[in-house]
Amino acid sequence: MFSYPTVRASFLFLAIAVAGLLVADIAITTANPWRDLGQFFLGVVTPNFFSTEGLLTALLRTVAFGFVGVTLGSFFGFLLALLYRFMPVRIFCAFIRAIHELFWALIFLQFFGFHPLTGVLAIAIPYAGIFAKVYSEILDESDPEPAQLLPKGTHAIAAFLYARIPDCWVQLRTYTAYRLECGLRSSAILGFVGLPTLGFYLETSFSQGMYSDAGAMLILFYVLIATMPLWVRPKVLPVYILAAPFFLGEGFPIVWGNVERFFTEDIVPAPLRNGEGLAAFSSWLGDVMVSEALPGIWNTVVLTQIALVATGILSLLAFPLISKHFGGPVRRTSGHVFLVIARSTPEYILAYILLQLWGPSMLPAVVALALHNGGIIGHLIGRQTNTIHLRPDAPQGFARYSWELVPRVYRSFLAFLFYRWEIIMRETAILGILGIYTLGFYVDSAIQNIQFDRAMILILITALLNIGVDILGRYIRRKLALQTMPTC
């Protein structure tokens, strides 16, 4: 068994995660966690849809921010995809997508304030980098033969529009629609930094112990995501895109002097801003690295590796829930509902809920990351098993699972898992805003203390860490000859 590279890689990552558990802060610190959890589930099954006057407005603005941000991101991402073969463009796209939407929102809040532009740009900028990468991969995989059949002298733009785009149009459209679902989740969590989306009201309800109100918001969000195929239709999509900017709200006016001061003073390291010289800057940077960056990096890496393995385990346990090779239609329907809820709830919201119920530690973050990402991968692998035809005398039960299906889908499973490695690290860093000692905790603390220079250094380190994990993940996929595939 250990002669297979995929098996050796799996056990290596498992060993790293077990070692991480030995040093991680895994604990439940609340006095009555099960009582609190029971009250939360009671609130979900007894939702109060009429207590919050602004709930429907928040839902509408969640959709509006999602549509505008994804539209801008896809437009500029497509333009960047056309130039993606150039190294500077690839580096730029890797950098902007490595910074989480909430980090972008925290940056823009400092000079745009609670203006709609803050939320729109927080989604559009990282999504442009993501779209550029995926669109470029889709275009590169298109069939070159149609372009070769065009008459000589055909303009390059005409050849591109009439030969390459039609060949990969379905893939472009499918991925863009999938990314729109991700955009709605990103839009929802922007409320946790004060923007008027669903997360703002969810945080308010939880902080006041109004679980029925929070349950209503979660149910509305699940319905919104689950019914997207019904209300997001190609014919009405232009109407949504044109109407969405008018539902973002007005916010406070932008003070352009704050924008100038942010770039010329606030983010300039204090020793350089005060003219203290390079020696003082080196001392200042060393203090940032020792007291904030290194502890944040350590906790971010430890939590990421634990969550990555937990995601893998949960994915392998979850895919039979929707596989036609196990159980009947009732069981598969229940499995679909569970996986839809798991993958539709943003990790940040899951972690926030669990932190309120279990107290501050890495445990809520691990569970939140594993549930969300495990729901995504479990759904994709389960759907893949439905295309597998077993022989009539194939074994039943656990033998079918362990000897027939898992070996056939394991390489695809690892490809999905390593693809999501970077995404899990991005989410791990941002969960620090909730009080977990990852890089996001130190970024948020620096911003709260009006130390934007320290915050920008830490955000830059977060981006470089994510880029490094992305490069390592692609290297491992290439060494193991795993097929890469984009997921949200």
TrEMBL record:
It is found in: Cell membrane. The chain crosses the membrane at residues 55-84, 182-202, 214-232, 239-256, 297-322, 334-355, 361-381, 423-443, 455-476. Keywords: Cell membrane, Membrane, Transmembrane, Transmembrane helix, Transport. InterPro entries: MetI-like_sf. It is a multi-pass membrane protein. The keyword Transit peptide does not apply. This is ABC transporter permease. It comes from Marinobacter alkaliphilus.
